Every structure is written in structure tokens, then in C-alpha cells.
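Lecture notes, unit on binding sites. The following record was shown on slide 14. It pairs a sequence with acetamide.
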Amino acid sequence: MTIAPTRRSVLPQTPRKTGAPWRVGVLFSHSGFMSVIEETQLHGTMLAIEEINASGGINGREVVPVAYDPASESAAFGHYAKRLMIEDRITTIFGCYTSSSRKAVLPVVERLNGLLWYPTLYEGFEFSPNIIYTGAAPNQNSVELCRFLIETYGSRFYFVGSDYIYPRESNRIMRELLAANGGSVVGERYLNLRARPQDFLPIIQDLRSTRPDVIFSTVVGDGTIYFYQAYTDSGLDPRTMPIASLTTTEAEIRAMGFDVGEGHITAAPYFEGVESEVSASFVARYKKRYGDDEPTNMCVEAAYFQVHMFAKALEQADSLDTDTLRTMVLGASFQAPQGQVTINSTSSHTDLWTRIGRANRRGQFDIIRQSPAAVRADPFLVGYGRATARG
Ligand code: ACM
């Protein structure tokens, strides 16, 4: 796969702006096997930047994104992060979906003192002063998901994942949670990130013979679509053996077909079905910008709200210097579409909502459980608990 050296600038104009623009980096894949979800994060990022510029920019200066397409290649994220920081002289980067791409950018932002805003759920057990984590840590999705699945379907789980750090580490955590709740793992399989539809067939056969109560899938990108389609083609029934995931959003469901996704379970801080004025207004603006058929999802939402949180911090700091900006970011709260979120000042992770959704025939998730408030980020699972940010 070639790495397209594309570079895009968005330069909307409004009369109130003065001074040089604030230039920021954007790194999400718009091609390759991860683009099904990363392109939505690119859209969420651009929508927020356009909104900020339409209301006059930040302190009279517009935000100009410099975006590259890493084409789903982890190493390319590191390469473009370096280019953004050294050649383009940019310090703030919005980007990354896979944990392997984040791990490629981390040493770059640490060495050059940049700030990566990372809007994706991940496996936890990481801290960098140069990363702001706005997706869920395991205590904000896996803990409640495990509890719900055992109560609803049973405690014999089968793990299927893409072969990289997030699935392997998430499964390690889920195995511990299961053991603590009297459950067991009856199978564990990993596939290459570039797996083709036929690669899932042996797994379907294994599911037929082991008959777990739940399939916990950490498959990402295009593989998600092939896996759920193979499941449906084989006649397995989500009412008795659902696929449960932390990554299957409205975007993957749309790509696989609403009938294919129906009945399967996802845990996420945000679903398009969240009922609030902030969410309804966000969804309406997103659809107006990208089309009525384009659903939002948890990854778009995090990509969107983190840019608005950045804008508020930059307004106060009036500087893109990482150390100055970080002071304004840590501890900041924002009324996001999912509800109020806060960037935890000790962990640089975000207090987020926990929700469990079941996909319906319309490609949306019916929300069947949700936390009463944002759940405090506990990326090292110190408490294993669900303390809300209020509690
Ligand atoms: C992920 O790789 N953090 C989904």
C-alpha cells in the first residue's frame, strides 16, 4: 500500500479575523483498511475547526489544519508527526485511531514536546505528558460491559481480535474481569489487520463447536465488517450469542449492513441515540455538513469535542506552546454531546460517560444502560471501579 503524501488546508474566511493563523496538525487515515472509522474522526475534527473559524477564530485568529493521510499504516503516523513538528513547525496534533499509530507518534511528541490529542478508546496503562486522551479507558467501557454481558447472556466468552496491542491488552483485561466474576475464556484468536473475508471462516467454525455465551470482538477496521458478515451468513443468533465490542460503532454498522449489525452489543461513551439538546444539535450540524446518511459515532464525537476543548484552552493561553497550553487543558470541562466531560488533571485522560448499546434495524444503538454521570478515568485500573466524576 502506498502512503499518499496528501496535504490539505482548509481556509474558511470571516471578516473578524486578524493576525497569523493558528496552525494545527491532523492525522487520520482517509484511505486503507482503517478509513471506515478514521475518516469519520477527520470529519469530526474539521467540523469543529469550521465552527470555531465561523465564529471568528480564536482571539481573532483562524485555525488552519494541516492534514496528512497516513493511509492506515502505523509507521506513517510517526513519519507524518515528525514532518508536522519539524518541517511544518506545528506543535498540536489531532489524530490516531489505532493504539499502534499512537505508539508511533508518542516518541515524536515526547522528544519534540508536542501535544497529541487522541480521540479513541484504548487499552489503558499509558501516560504521557504529551498526550491528551479523550477516548475511553477500560474502566469506562470494559468493566460495565463485562458485568452486563455476564448478567444478560452468560459467562463463557470467546475472544476474537485484530493482531496488535489494543486487542491483546483489552483481552488481558477482559480475562481478568471475567475471572473475578467467575467467568471463563473458551477461545482466543487473532487475525492480521489486513484479514480478508475468508480468513474469518475458521473462527466461525470454532464458534459453532465451542458455543460460547458471548463473543468479545476487538477486531477493528474493515475486518469488523467481514467478521460480522461471516457471523450472519453462518446463521448464528445474536439473541443467544451476541458479538460484544468496544469499537463497533454506527460507522462500521452502516458499512456491514443494518441487518448484519442488528442485535449486537457495543460499550461506548456516546451513541447517536443519546437524547440531549447538545447531541441533537451536533448530529444535525454533522449531517448538514456530511450528508443525511452519515451517522455520527463515539469516535467522531471525541474528535469533535476535543477540538472545542483545545479552542477554549488556546483562548486562555493565547499560545500554542505545549507547556503553556497544557496548563489550561488539564482540569477543563466541556458540555459535549455525550454530556459533561472533564480532562482529569492527574492522568491527562478524560472523565467520560459509560453506555451500553444494542444495535437495531435502523443502524442505531438502543441505549440499554448508562452511568448517572461521567465516570472518572482510571487508566491503570487502580480502582477497577466505576466511580463517577461526581461521586
Ligand atoms: C485502538 O486501537 N485503540 C482501538
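Take-home: Residues 1-15 have pLDDT under 50 and may be disordered.
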